[in-house]
Amino acid sequence: MAELTIERKTPNVATPTKSRSLWQRTLRYKESYLLILPTFVLILIFNYYPALSALYHSFFEWNGANVNKFTGLTNFITMTQDAILWQSFGNLLKLTVVAVAISLTFPLGAAALIFHLRDLKFAYFYRVLFVVPIVVPSLVVLMIWRFIYSPNLGLLNEILKAISLETWTRPWLGDFNLALYAIMFIGFPWVAGIGTLIYLAGFQGIPAELLDSAAIDGANTWQRFLSVELPLVLSQIKLVVILTIIASIQSFGTILVMTNGGPGTNTMVPGLFLYRNAMQYNKMGYACAIGTVLFAVTLVLTYLNTRYLKSSVEFSGA
Amino acid sequence: MSRTFKHDFPLHLVLGLLAIFTFYPFIFMVITSFKTSPQFIHDFWGIAWPPTLANYRDAWSRVNGYLFNSIIVSGVSMVGVLIIASISGFVFARFNFPGRELFFFAILALLMIPSVLTLVPAFLLVKDLGLINTYWALILPYIAGGQIFAIFILRSFIAGLPEELFEAARLDGASTLQAFRSIVLPLSKPILVTIAVMNVLGTWNDYIWPLVTIPDSKLWTISVGIVTFGSTLRGLESWGPMFAGFVIASVPMIILFVFTMRYFIAGLTSGAIKA
């Protein structure tokens, strides 16, 4: 039986390869392929096939069963005239901008505060403290926020009543103008989670000499933060921003559970619209077309982010 | 000690405030879970005594099925990902074969594809495979998807292991399998734990995919089930049991984190972030 030996990492050194027969060499490669076969079977079936099928069916009128008619660019043209889709992209833009702004401020600020604590015991305490809420399942968090926004006996309205602002009480998720903002506000104060942890790791990675030399040069805490600490966590910032954007483009579970796109279509987002077209109207082809557009948007943004990221990393490395 | 505290006081003030805002809803949830409905309606804010444990019995009878399903799905998926990804990561890191870089890229490229794109065809595929209303409808795609990031991380990590270890093993006449078992696996433990926890978190919290592929309420995972549970109990104005159910739904994750917190934070803040 051909023994599969571990390949050396420096193939220029004389290897046993040359002394082995062609058969044994092929057999060795065959074992590599066999070992990664489970991986590829799974991704071909459950990842590549659906992705290609989605791109393919964007050009069809498809109901998932018997109707499968090639219609070229019809779906895409329909998309440009679909008022609800335009509204959903508008909502998505607003939600994404706010989400990015939040991800750049609250977790970053909290991480900076923790980083500046002199007592390391407390620093560790806060670090663990803000990771703890991850244990609560995300749907439970949404259910809690649904309770917070509840018109009767909801936490927010009760707080307003308690501080004599009863006129401010609202059916938050049912208000045509406020529902989208209510969705944006979910997660306040946005400090718990891995965002804070990522930023904190970034701060802790700053070489102490840089901070010390800035202090010696007479920079106060705030100046140090702006000119030394902040630029050196730029790569973490880029990471959090791109993750936030990609997550925002795809996610619609929150909206589905909180408002189902309502009231009316005021909280509709493209992902949810895709879902509704597929699951309710059986317009699978149209849904795939929407998915293709979202995919294109994600690709463009990721490409832009990678290009931009390279230059800022080079800057902070100097 | 008090001098650092005086210096840090403004920091503590803000961080403390953030902590209060973060945790208050959860504290409220726990307090209310021990109230009867009349107690809640008449006294929104206070603590009820004695605590009503019946709420938890009621909630448990409704959600334990969902928890069981989630544990099975997330558990099996996690094991599947760990096994397949560590083998593939090992192969990509240490073996040289034609097309290796191409195959690796083919795996990574999938990270670009948003889940919304594949949702519809994947659903139809699972339907055609006859897997609707089975655990496999969830487990197989979870392993297929979860392994991608895991392979990426593990290949990096294994490729970084010192060559001398493998040299020594080869000189001792160890086979590939032995080297994998006695060198790679023990050294990868922290990273495997991090991958496992991230995987369980992702599958535990997944909502849309189980919603779409599992119509049978007996097989619902906790994320799907808790929504119906919440709506039903809100309609019944059973606030106490509703919150009790939310608390119960959090317990498995709490247990997981208690055991893995150190590994998880260490794994996140170390090499994985720099990637």
Walk me through the topology:
The complex is a heterodimer of chains A (318) and B (275).
Chain A: H1 22-57, E1 60-62, E2 68-70, H2 74-81, H3 83-116, H4 120-129, H5 138-148, H6 155-162, H7 179-185, H8 194-204, H9 208-216, H10 221-232, H11 234-250, H12 253-258, H13 270-279, H14 284-317
Antiparallel strand pairs in A: 1-2
Chain B: H1 2-32, H2 37-42, H3 54-94, H4 100-108, H5 115-128, H6 136-159, H7 163-171, H8 176-205, H9 208-213, H10 222-235, H11 239-274
Fold and architecture overview:
- Chain A has 318 residues and is mostly helical.
- Chain A has 2 domains: 16-57, no CATH class; 82-317, MetI-like fold.
- Chain A contains 14 helices and 2 strands, in the order H-E-E-H-H-H-H-H-H-H-H-H-H-H-H-H.
- Chain A has helices at 22-57, 74-81, 83-116, 120-129, 138-148, 155-162, 179-185, 194-204, 208-216, 221-232, 234-250, 253-258, 270-279, 284-317, and strands at 60-62, 68-70.
- Chain A has a two-stranded antiparallel sheet with strand order 1-2.
- In chain A, strand 1 and strand 2 form a beta hairpin.
- The longest helix of chain A is centred in the N-terminal third of the chain and has 36 residues, at 22-57.
- The radius of gyration of chain A is 26 Å and the shape is globular.
- Residues 11-15 and 311-318 of chain A have low confidence and may be disordered.
- Chain B is mostly helical and 275 residues long.
- Chain B has a domain at 64-224 and 251-274: MetI-like (MetI-like fold, Orthogonal Bundle).
- Helix content of chain B is 80%, strand content 0%.
- Chain B is built from 11 helices and no strands.
- In chain B, helix 3 runs antiparallel to helix 8, helix 6 (136-159) crosses helix 8 (176-205) and helix 10 packs antiparallel against helix 11 (239-274).
- The longest helix of chain B is centred in the first third of the chain and has 41 residues, at 54-94.
- At the A-B interface, helix 1, helix 3, helix 4, helix 5 and helix 6 of A face helix 1, helix 3, helix 4, helix 5 and helix 6 of B.
